[in-house]
Design brief:
CATH architecture of the largest domain in chain B: 3-Layer(aba) Sandwich
Oligomer: heterodimer
Number of domains of chain A: 1
CATH topology of chain A: ABC transporter involved in vitamin B12 uptake, BtuC
Distance between the termini of chain B: 63 Å
Helix content of chain B: 40-55%
Radius of gyration of chain B: 23 Å
Number of strands of chain A: 2
Strand order of the largest sheet of chain A: 1-2
Radius of gyration of chain A: 19 Å
Order of helices and strands of chain A: HHHHEEHHHHHHH
Strand order of the largest sheet of chain B: 7-6-8-9-10-14-15
CATH class of chain A: Mainly Alpha
CATH architecture of chain A: Orthogonal Bundle
Largest sheet of chain A: 2 strands, antiparallel
Number of strands of chain B: 15
Number of domains of chain B: 2
Largest sheet of chain B: 7 strands, mixed
Structural class of chain B: alpha/beta
Strand content of chain B: 15-25%
Shape of chain B: elongated
Number of helices of chain A: 11
């Protein structure tokens, strides 16, 4: 019995708690991705670089003396403006062409490459590690967890809830969902579809930027950081259902738990292929994912 | 008459040039000057240029001036082979050095054998170069990978005799071989292994492995991750309170000038084994560091000092042989003792591996400080070369 308790305390408990913190981080990344995909039908390959840009912006502002907590509000605002401008200036131009998927994918992929090199030019190739604004660690039921990760879990849950409320419980969210469901019908009912599109893209980008600020103290900041979560986030979006918030949350938490627990039994290198294997399985068996698209639930 | 004078003058200049060319000792340097390893190649060049300048100011080698001729190998063994061939055939260099990655060094060693000329690496770590792939024409003046782990283990066993060690490495060839080498060196000295993990390269989050590490209750934690992986591993361990009371040691490349600032406080107390540190408190090293900074306005690193030393290695050998003839110089190089900023180095005759004192260095106050000196004899390991 004591062995069982000890194995929970030392092995499974921390593993699940850590998995939860990573899961929240992944869901935050997947959220912006899934909203942009669900509404605009655009696969944003530059999402990871928007995440990195958020982290670098936070780093710069903190270095200028702005408090971390102010950055949490300020960076998403700046990022939303950048996102809005990107949508109007670039994505709109290729959005209405026949080959939308290919063109927007290539466009955002190009943006990602430019952004990564721009980070290298401006900030240099070496990593930065901002100090966590909350230090120390707490013990919960014998499981040690750094206080900042506890904060991340709570803050992440609040952000996810807030996003859900905005999309499903406000008239703004109703316009977004209406535009996603039937663009022409929404437009004829007076919804400013173009602005809704740009606004939604800006919202997704702001979420990526916010994740960047939140996660920088844990994962550090460097030019290629955008590639870090993006594959996992794409898997979460595919398994959860492209455009579904509920699906992204469930898929994000389940996949990271699978990854976390499986790394106890198999070589850690194989836990990622396991997750991607699940993604491939979903694409083959249930391509619409756990839940449907943004307009549907 | 006027014309005759002119011809005589031209002839004199021409002959002088000819004599000059004949008497110059040429050292070919095949090193990466562009690409990922350009930073290392730059330090190699700075070190060699400083040594060549010093030697020429004092009359050269055997009364002849020394000239270094550079070729960019782009850290690519195929390019290195072509450039080495060119230096031997066209530039007629007497000695070749500069290769950085171990593949280039091994390939260039074969070119040197074919051309019956001598070469030495000042950077490559792979044990094979002076082990099972040794060559009678290739030497190594820098410490090999095995010496770093031997030096570190030698220091560690003094701190925690019979201590328990947990290993965490990146899951690829270099990561696994460094862990294996250190484990070997540690086990030989009575330290015990209590667990090991190989995490993917560019791993985001190491916390999923912390439960296993905590449960194993190791006294010592060894890692061979590098770059940003080190930043994440050590800062995450420190946030989880895992580093308390544990000795953290690692490979020489785990914490470098590139990531030290980002690792920050979590790097405090980290110990590794190296063949050089600017901290070495000897007149020879202080002079070298001062001259280097005066000439290049930057700090020398390990690669610069070993490359600086290789020029003196050739000088001492050529002067002992009294000639630049390959066979005579090779005989002189075997067993040769020569002075470098790192102290006295001895070239082992059996495998062409230099024996040099190693250092266990510890990060204190954000800087590498010498924790202990480990004699070359204790860290060099047995001679495994069977080719000559």
């Amino acid at each position: 019995m004591t062995e069982l308790i000890e194995s929970f305390q030392f092995v499974y408990g921390p593993q699940m708690a850590n998995g939860l913190a990573i899961g929240v981080a992944v869901v935050l990344m997947a959220l912006g991705l899934t909203i942009i995909f669900g509404l605009l039908d655009v696969i944003n390959m530059a999402h990871g670089e928007f995440y990195a840009l958020g982290a670098y912006l936070g780093l710069t502002l903190v270095a200028k003396g702005v408090s971390f907590w102010v950055c949490l509000a300020l960076v998403p605002l700046i990022m939303a403006a950048i996102g809005y401008a990107t949508e109007r200036a670039l994505i709109q131009r290729v959005f209405h062409s026949g080959d939308r998927h290919t063109l927007t994918l290539l466009l955002t992929f190009g943006l990602a490459i430019i952004a990564e090199d721009a980070f290298r030019l401006v900030y240099g190739p070496n990593p930065y590690k901002p100090d966590a604004p909350i230090s120390g660690a707490s013990e919960l039921l014998g499981v040690m967890l750094p206080n900042y990760r506890l904060f991340l879990i709570v803050a992440g849950a609040a952000i996810i809830l807030a996003v859900w409320l905005v999309v499903y419980r406000t008239s703004l969210g109703a316009m977004v969902r209406a535009s996603a469901f039937d663009r022409n019908m929404a437009s004829s009912l007076g919804v400013p579809v173009d602005k809704v599109y740009a606004g939604t893209f800006a919202f997704g980008v702001a979420l990526a930027g916010l994740s960047g600020v939140l996660l920088a103290p844990i994962y550090s900041v460097f030019p290629t950081m955008g590639k870090d979560f993006i594959l996992l986030a794409f898997s979460v979006v595919i398994v959860g259902g492209m455009g579904s918030i509920k699906g992204a949350v469930i898929a994000g938490l389940v996949l990271t738990q699978i990854q976390s627990i499986s790394s106890l039994f198999i070589s850690p290198v194989w836990s990622e292929p396991l997750v991607f294997g699940i993604m491939v399985l979903f694409l083959m068996v249930r391509p619409q994912g756990l839940a449907g698209r943004l307009g549907n639930g | 008459m006027q014309q005759l004078k002119l011809i005589a003058a031209v002839a004199a200049v021409f002959l002088a040039g000819q004599a000059q060319a004949q008497s110059t000792i040429k050292i070919g340097v095949v090193t990466p000057l562009t690409g990922t390893y350009a930073g290392i190649g730059q330090q190699v060049k700075w070190g060699i240029d400083l040594a060549v300048k010093e030697i020429n100011d004092k009359g050269g080698i055997l009364g002849r001036k020394v000239e270094a001729i550079y070729e960019d190998e782009e850290a690519n063994p195929n390019v290195a082979v072509q450039k080495a061939e060119k230096l031997f055939q066209v530039s007629k260099v007497d000695f070749l050095t500069g290769t950085v990655n171990s593949g280039s060094t091994l390939a260039v060693g074969q070119v040197a054998e074919r051309n019956n000329r001598l070469a030495s690496t000042t950077v490559s770590y792979s044990d094979a170069i002076t082990g099972d792939k040794c060559s009678p024409n290739m030497f190594r003046v820098n410490a090999k990978a095995g010496m770093q782990s031997e030096a570190l283990a030698e220091w560690l066993v003094k701190q925690k005799p019979g201590g328990t060690v947990y290993f965490l490495g990146p899951d690829y060839e270099m990561g696994r071989s460094t862990v294996a080498a250190f484990k070997d060196a540690a086990t030989k000295r009575g330290l015990k292994t209590v667990g090991e993990t190989f995490a993917p390269l560019d791993n985001k989050d190491y916390s999923p492995y912390f439960g296993q590490i905590r449960a194993a209750k190791p006294q010592v934690f060894y890692t061979s991750v590098a770059g940003n992986d080190t930043v994440r591993l050590l800062t995450q361990m420190s946030e989880f309170g895992l580093t308390k009371g544990m000795i953290i040691v690692g490979a020489a490349g785990t914490i470098t000038a590139q990531n030290l600032a980002a690792v920050g406080k979590a790097a405090e107390g980290f110990v590794t084994g190296v063949g050089y540190t600017m901290e070495i408190d000897t007149p020879a090293n202080k002079k070298f560091v001062g001259d280097f900074k005066a000439m290049w306005k930057t700090d020398p690193d390990l690669f610069a000092v070993d490359s600086y030393g290789v020029v003196y290695f050739y000088k001492t050998a050529a002067e002992k042989a009294g000639s630049t003839d390959t066979d005579k110089v090779r005989t002189a190089m075997r067993g040769l003792e020569w002075q470098t900023p790192q102290g006295k180095k001895t070239m082992r005759a059996g495998d062409h591996q230099a024996i040099l004192d190693m250092y266990a260095v510890k990060i204190q106050g954000g800087k590498f400080k010498i924790a202990d000196k480990v004699s070359g004899a204790a860290s060099v390991g047995p001679d495994t070369c069977t080719k000559f």
